[in-house]
Amino acid sequence: MNKIIKSYVPFMKAGIQSLIIYRMNFLGFVIGGLIYCFVMFYLWKGVFDSNGEGMFLGFSMTDMVIYLFLSNTTGQLTFSSVSNQIGEEIRDGSISMRLLKPVNTDLSYMFAELGEVLMKLVVLVLPIILGLEIYRFCITGTVMFNVVNLLLYLLSAVLAYIISFRVNLCFGFIAFYVKNLWGIGILKNSIIGFLSGSLIPLAFMPDGLRMCLEYMPFASMGYTPVMIYMGKYGTNEILFRLGLQVVWAILLYGLSKLIWFGAIKKLCVQGG
Q1: Are 157 and 220 in contact (CB under 8 A)?
Q2: pLDDT tens digits for 204-254?
Q3: Which of 2, 86, 163, 170 is the most buried (most CB within 10 A)?
Q4: Which of 18, 4, 249, 234 is nearest to 113 (CA)?
Q5: Phi-psi region at 238: left, alpha or beta (left = phi > 0; alpha = psi -120 to 50)
Q6: For residue 6, how many C-alpha atoms fall within 13 Å in the half-sphere facing its CB?
């Protein structure tokens, strides 16, 4: 354990320092996400107003506001840019220096991102959750905050990040073959945004499609923790969803290792 701490904590510190140094990029990312949430708020407000009822497919307008902001915030918390990092390092040749270091390649990438994740949790996620609970109290007149749901949400968010990291790691290893991920990276983000429920709640999908999507790893990357926090799942359903996240984390770990062993044989440095 001490060896792991000494070897990988510096990567975490570097991730924190990177976020601090480029704080304007982070601030712009957050503001852009909030603007998106407000745009979607007025869109869904129009849907609820035209519906003429207080509920729409099991969601009230208050639920929808909570979902929009928490889904966007959770997406930022669990976001992994490891595929971009791998692609850039292969493009400029610096991947060779990483491979020469006496550390696990996967963990070096993960710990660098964990520094950013911790910063996002403190300066973004917890304040947003506090604001949402104040909003919910002002609308309903009732304190609906649930500590258990918050803890389960955080646990699910940790698993969601691991899944997101492994999915993007698998995608990043494609750079060993195609050399440039920019174009297909945009396509990947669009597909994940839809399949993970960040654009439209999966509960609004047709039953057959919804059941299929909920079993895929993308729902575990954002939709699951949000629904847990909102109390949309019962106890048995929560346990099942958390178990499903663990299963996907294990399967994607194995898949990433399998792709890595094939990809490393295809390394062709373009720069450096």
Answers
A1: no
A2: 888 888 889 899 999 999 899 999 999 999 999 999 999 999 999 999 999
A3: 163
A4: 18
A5: alpha
A6: 4
Rg (CA), the chain: 20
Give the DSSP H/E element, type plus range, for residue 201.
none
Which pLDDT score is estimated for 159?
Answer: 96
In whole angstroms, give the CA distance from residue 272 to residue 90: 9
* Domains of the chain: total: 1
Closest CA to 246 of 158, 172, 127: 158
CA distances to 94, 168, 210, 246 from 82, rounded to whole Å, are 14, 6, 28, 20
Q: Count H helices, E strands: the chain?
A: 13, 2
User: What is the rounded distance in angstroms from the CA atom of residue 120 to the CA atom of residue 55?
Assistant: 32
pLDDT of residue 252: 94
| pLDDT at 186 (0 to 100) | 79
130 class by beta-carbon count within 10 Å (0-12 exposed, 13-18 middle, 19+ buried): exposed
pLDDT for res 132: 92
Extract the runs of DSSP E, i.e. beta strands, from the chain: 55-56, 59-60
- Domain of residue 50 covers 2-270
Q: What is the pTM of this model?
A: 0.88
pLDDT of residue 59: 85
In the chain, which residues have pLDDT < 50? 271-272
Give the pLDDT confidence score for residue 272 in this predicted structure. Answer: 46
For 234, left (φ over 0), alpha (ψ -120 to 50), or beta? beta
For residue 63, with 0-12 CB atoms within 10 Å meaning exposed, 13-18 middle and 19 or more buried, which class applies?
Answer: middle
